[in-house]
Predict the 3D structure of the following.
Amino acid sequence: MTPWLQDQARVRERRGLVRSPLVRGVNPGMIDLASNDYLGLATDPRLAEAAQEAIAMWGTGATSSRLVAGTTELHLELEHELAHLIGADAALVFSSGYLANLGVTTALGGPGTLMVADEQCHASLMDGFRLSRSEVKNFRHNSVEDAAKALANRIQPRAVIAVESIYSVGGDASPLAELLELAETHDAMLLVDEAHSLGVAGTGSQQGCGAIAGTRLAGHPNVIVTATLSKALGSQGGAVLGSTLVRDHLVNRARSFIFDTALAPPAAAAALAAIGIIRAEPWRAAAVHRNAAALSAQLQPALQRLGTAVDRSAGAVQSIPMPSAEAALAASKEAHTAGVSVGCFRPPSVPDGVSRLRLTARATLTPTDIEQACAVLRSILERTS
C-alpha cells in the first residue's frame, strides 16, 4: 500500500491538486467571502444562547441514534418548524446535510429506480446514487429537454429527478417549475437540494424561506426537498422534507438516519433559533442579494478583460472561472495574504477544465468590505492569464 499511496501523492502534487484543511483563526481584519454563513448567524449571540440552554437541559450530545434514545423535543420542534418554513407536510432531521442526501437517495433507490440527475449535482447526491444501486442517467446542466430524453424510455417502475435549486459552485438556479411538470408527466419524484437556497431565496413574505416556499412545488406529493442547517442557518445538521409517507419511509429505510447518532441538541436548538430570525429579519436575505449584486458589478471590468462573462447569481454564490487549477489556487492564496478569504474549487470538486474561485455574498458584509475585497480581486484577476 505504501508505494501506491506515495504514487498518489506525487500525482496530486504534479496536477496541482494537493489539499489540506485550512485552519480558520480569529482574524477580525479578514474579509470573509469563502464561508457559507450567508446570513451571518453562525456567531449570532441568540444562537449561542439557545445552544447553551439546550446543553443545560439535554447535554452536549444526543447520546444515541434517533430510534433508540437520541430524539428530544428539540428535534421534533425543529422538524415541525422546518416543514412550516418551506411549506412541506413533514420533515426528518439528520446529523448533516450530506447524510440527509445519502439517506433519501438510498432509501428511494435500488434496481427498480432510475435516477435522472443534473450533471452538476452535489457529491453527496452522486454518492447516494452509487450506494443505492440504481441506474443513473446524468443530463446536461439545467436542460429539461435532456432530462426528458433520459426518462422517455425508462423500464424501471420508479424514477427520481435530482437537482439543486441553486447550484453550489456555479450559483445559478434550476428551472424548478418546468422540472415539476416533467416529473408529473413521467410519474417521477423531483428531489430538490435546497442547501444553498434555504435562508437566501424566496420573494415577498417568503423572503429567506427557500426556492420552494410559496410555489406550486411546496407540499406537492411528487416533490422531496433536502436542506442543510449548516449554511444560512449557522448551525449543523440536515433535513429531508416532503409528505408524511416519505418521512415514515425514511425512518424505516434510511440507513444514515437509523444507524447514526442523532443531531446534537445544541445544534438543533441553534437551528431553531435561526428559523425564528429568518422570519423576523427578512432584511438579512435581502442584504445577501444586494451584496451579491455589488460583488458582481464591481468585478465585471476585470472579468471582461479575462474574456469571462459572469451573470449575477440567483443566490449568494458568485462563481469566477479560472484558466487552470494552479491559477485558481494561486489566486486564492494571494487573496488570503491580502486579507480576503475566497473559495477555491478544483478537480475533483469540479470537472477538469472548470476550476474557479467562488465568492459568497453574506448579509453582514459592509459596502467598505465589498469595495476593499473587489479591489484586491480585480488586481489579482487583471494579472491572471
